[in-house]
Structure to design on (456 residues):
């Protein structure tokens, strides 16, 4: 009897310790990983497509737009600065929850470093949400092989690195830690805002390659074999970006390996057959990037998603599920979560070109009143064209400041001006921009922009 009491006591202590670690982990871990995975873990039906890879696919593919336009269900498991080693282990862990019809792997940066190199600070984003288990144990051992026990413990138990956040825990944050209603509304994708003209590079001949970094080919082969062993089709994708010659040569090597493995590559970086400069027939090189050397902005990602959706239906025969009652939750999520979130995020932007880019989404229509003091530059005129008939521009002698006294005004560089500010002769109001939802006319934003020189 005493032995049984001791056993029960030990078990109770272990349960209390485990429960304490779990609660502490939930309360102190930063929630970005949890928010990313909430809907992924909760979804009962398997996805048509799951995306894997780096931030290029993370911000370059928009699952909710893929759903709304094609009725294809998908989830974006791309990660910030994710190595091919990390993508492989995210695949292994995700297959414990869902077996998609198709796994799509982004080929960017596969040979950047000897694998599985990756900064541990970025590993948390892709790993923290997964509970401890055999696969996670194997992943951490592999991704951090040769590194300290403390670093491995940091991924096994994120609580161990976030414990110092106790003083940040509030009643609201504690509720949020266990609230599954707080989640990434775009099925794992992250939209980026801004407009930047990228660097120009010559297109490298597809036959020119470079040596692969150590271990990369093994992870690529293992990714493919893991999919095939699980009965999941696999393909690679090349998301458009201004790739320097070295990156192009690395991706040429990946595409050669894909051919050897019999894996389709959806190459969205292809331009005209005789293009000398790197370009893409899918996006506009001058309006669709958020930074000059890497990532697509929101509208660039939308274009890529639309182009990809058509290819997925053509290549893999995915059926449109928008009218299928079993998938009605996807329509509800689009209407009640996705659109309100992107509307709120758009309303929070201050840069004129960013708003012009963002408002070109088909969910919106835009009215602009402009004065003779405003002269759009070449990029702005390109952004106008994205709207088609959904942009109405009216010229006026001036913009009445009385209509904007309760709004925050902005200059053409996105710097906020205090509400009710007295506009001087050096701060000339040149644009009033109003964006509405097309389906119900609700005003999403109404802002006045000023130019300190009288022109943009």
């Amino acid at each position: 009897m005493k032995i049984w009491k001791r056993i029960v006591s030990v078990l109770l202590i272990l349960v209390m310790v485990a429960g304490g670690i779990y609660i502490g982990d939930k309360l102190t871990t930063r929630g970005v990983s949890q928010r990313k995975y909430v809907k992924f873990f909760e979804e009962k039906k398997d996805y048509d497509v799951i995306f894997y890879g780096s931030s290029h696919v993370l911000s370059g593919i928009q699952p909710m737009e893929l759903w709304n336009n094609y009725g294809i269900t998908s989830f974006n498991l791309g990660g910030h600065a994710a190595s091919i080693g990390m993508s492989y282990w995210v695949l292994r862990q995700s297959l414990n929850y869902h077996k998609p019809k198709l796994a799509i792997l982004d080929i960017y940066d596969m040979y950047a470093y000897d694998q599985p190199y990756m900064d541990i600070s970025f590993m948390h984003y892709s790993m923290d949400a997964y509970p401890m288990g055999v696969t996670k144990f194997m992943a951490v051992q592999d991704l951090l092989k040769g590194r300290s026990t403390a670093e491995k413990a940091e991924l096994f138990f994120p609580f161990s690195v976030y414990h110092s956040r106790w003083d940040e825990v509030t009643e609201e944050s504690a509720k949020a830690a266990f609230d599954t209603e707080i989640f990434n509304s775009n099925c794992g994708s992250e939209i980026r805002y801004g407009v930047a003209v990228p660097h120009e590079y010559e297109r490298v001949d597809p036959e020119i390659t470079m040596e692969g970094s150590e271990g990369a080919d093994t992870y690529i082969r293992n990714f493919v074999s893991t999919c095939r062993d699980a009965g999941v089709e696999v393909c690679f994708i090349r998301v458009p970006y201004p790739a320097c010659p070295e990156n192009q040569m690395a991706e040429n090597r990946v595409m050669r390996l894909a051919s050897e493995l019999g894996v389709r590559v959806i190459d969205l970086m292809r331009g005209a057959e005789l293009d000398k400069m790197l370009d893409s027939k899918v996006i506009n090189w001058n309006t669709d990037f958020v930074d000059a050397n890497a990532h697509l902005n929101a509208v660039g990602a939308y274009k890529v998603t639309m182009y990809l959706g058509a290819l997925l239906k053509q290549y893999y025969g995915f059926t449109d599920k928008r009218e299928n009652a079993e998938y009605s939750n996807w329509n509800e999520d689009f209407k009640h979560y996705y659109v309100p979130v992107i509307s709120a995020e758009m309303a929070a932007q201050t840069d004129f070109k960013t708003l012009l880019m963002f408002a070109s989404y088909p969910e919106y229509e835009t009215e602009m009143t402009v004065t003779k003091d405003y002269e759009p530059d070449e990029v702005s005129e390109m952004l106008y064209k994205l709207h088609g008939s959904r942009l109405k521009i009216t010229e006026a002698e001036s913009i009445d400041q009385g209509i904007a006294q309760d709004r925050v005004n902005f200059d053409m560089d996105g710097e906020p001006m205090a509400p009710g500010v007295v506009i001087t002769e050096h701060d000339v109001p040149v644009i009033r921009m109003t964006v509405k939802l097309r389906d119900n006319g609700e005003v999403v934003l109404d802002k006045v922009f000023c130019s300190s020189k009288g022109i943009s």
Remarks:
- Confidence is low (pLDDT under 50) at residues 14-28, 162-180.
- The chain has two domains: 28-343, 349-451.
- The domain at 349-451 is CATH 3.30.360 (Dihydrodipicolinate Reductase; domain 2).
- The CA atoms of residues 130 and 136 lie 7 Å apart.
